[in-house]
Amino acid sequence: MSDADLQRRRVLQFAALGGVSLAATLGSRIALAHRTHVSLTRVSLNSRTGRWEITHAVHYHDALKLLAARGVSDNVQPASVAGRARVALEVERGFLWRTGDGSPLQPLTVGAELEGNNVLVYQELQPPPRPSTIRVESNFLHEVFDGQVNNVSLEFEKPFVVLRLRKTAPSAEFDWRPSAAPAPQDSRRAK
User: Fold this and answer.
1) pTM above 0.70, yes or no
2) What mean pLDDT value characterizes the chain?
3) Is 50 among the domain residues?
4) Taking CA atoms, which of 2, 22, 79, 177 is between 20 and 30 Å from 121?
5) 67 and 19 within one domain
6) Cross-strand pairs, 153
């Protein structure tokens, strides 16, 4: 083997080693891109109906891990109708809404869809007609991820209020003042 061949071999080995190192570095960064486990629940008031519209956004990977933890078959993914329905069921089980006296408030699940990297679960809830303390409790995904945080954004408040529900502090309270909210509007038009 000539010196030129030996030199070419060393350059190729160095290039291959560099390529493997670069791929390993980029691959580990991509693999760690979703290190935190956070869901976002947005609560807004529909001024037409007077109902709260609740949107839960769950990262696709977290939803996938949730389905696996619940023993759902591998062919049911969050992108499928059955997978989104199961995620919606888990959201129903994982969030509890109560008035200050402990009376339960029962949201109605109206749908779920995949948007980007998130599974969105839509619910509606008729809020209490009188001012009340509302307690929201969540254990959603706490069994799957130790560091799971469920943020609840109260978007009928100005400025928005965000409640952070963790395994160590799974509930929070806020004051609901319906008088401060816009009154429901009649959707029928006079003829």
Assistant:
1) yes
2) 84
3) yes
4) 177
5) no
6) 42, 162
